[in-house]
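Pilot study result, target chain (532 residues):
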Amino acid sequence: MYKSVITTLILLAGYALSAQHKDDSSAAKPLTGYVDMHCHPRGDLAYGTQLFYGAPYGDISVALGSCKEDHSKNILRAQLAKQTETLNSAAWKDSKEGYPNFVTWPSWCSTLHQQMWVDWIERAHKEGGLNIMCALAVSNHCIGSAAKCTGPLDDEQVMLNLIQGIKDLVASTSFMEIALTPQDVRRIVASGKLAVILGSEMDNIGNFYSPQDNYKANFNPTPSNEQIKAELDKLWDLGLRYIFPVHLMNTVFGGTALGMSTLNVANKFTTGVEFIPEQVNTKETGIAFHLEHPGVGLNAVAKAFMPLLLPKNVNPGKKSNYTVWDTLPGYGHRNSIGLTERGKFAINYMMKKGFLIDIDHMSDKMCNAVLDMAVANDYPVNSGHNGPRGNAGAEGGRTLKQYAQLKQLGGMAGLGHGANASDFVKTYHTVAQIMGNTHMAIGTDVGGFSALPQRDTSIHLIYDNTFTRCQTGTRSWDINTDGVAHYGLWPDYIRSWTLAGMPAQEMQTFMSSAEQFTEMWEKCERRKGEVK
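Predicted structure:
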């Protein structure tokens, strides 16, 4: 995700292939280890290629060297990067130098520097039990445009670059292999390797949108069903298996979950129109979020800079560009857009192809409609990096009924990592009770403009000759002081859960998620031929 960058933009401008296989695999030794259902290792190829810094492999002195060229050369981009990084920690100060000292980055609070260096991925695999990783393409046209980046910006080309980039990363190693089928997963993991599944969390597949910056590329905001089918076929042929029909913007398939007012700017940039919310009773839905005008809080300097960053009709500094929405006491806002007719066709075709579908980021209405389709077809879907909505949240959080449907279908619930180990353990326990302590994994969102877990001051992890600190170059990291600074510290974070009170039964469930994920995929393969 990249919610923090949109916020900064506002602030700156201040189971198997057949029943026979199921019978065969059921006698096989179950897979061990866990699944990361959500990560982004190639941010360096997204957002116009100059906002997110650092490649995940290659000559480390180049791949993770100084970020000065990207983060200092353009004044507007430099300020955007600076303000984005300081959102999560006011103490952030970018030394720019990178390898070998890594004085300021990677850091738990840094969202614009590479945190998935290949050695760190290998440590997560060999020391932490990571055996399946969903590596997702993600980018945002609006952010790249506002940052004045010169690389490709349109979603279609960026997605193609990202998919190839992930393939190149995997091919550069001996411990990873791309899985195209659940049989591949079983073979790869059984051989001691990390199975990588290609996926997309792009805002608009197939360039099915109409950006407001007059960018020179082919866009189609009103695709036919045949064009949608052709695009999904193309992605499947490229090896993509995990898919988000919706990300943070409304799409031709349906509405996004409202949860941050500043995202209204990116939505208008992408679609030409603003979000249109509807009021719902907070007590009945758990939705308390209020959609505000995205220009709230802009000072005079920010308003002056805004025309340099965004098209005139998207500028949040102009009050008339966005509606001021009211709500009754005890009510919140959710997206009025649910699953569209094009969306129904796309979801149905995704099931027929055998895609692994993630319902995260869908509006409440779209999510419920997709779950109804999944239940009608007994086809598993997933919520890969989320948590419970609670009593006063936004529509993107999962409800008890939604979790019950995921459980019924055999889908996976991947949890967001939480602020620290103790927070994750509490959330895991809550969801484990709902899911029957099964089919639960994690969605780390590393590389997706999301801060990672901070240090947990209530516990202390011991490093010794059986478990040593991660070191790269001249820098070593200690989770007790550094938090989860990068992907290589997930083994440290997982060890911390026991210290934070995670029962052995719940840890066993987590460390069985590779098997449960594979069973979910095998069921998708069995059911795809029966989808109506």
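One observation from the pilot: The CA atoms of residues 382 and 459 lie 32 Å apart. A full batch analysis is planned for the follow-on phase.
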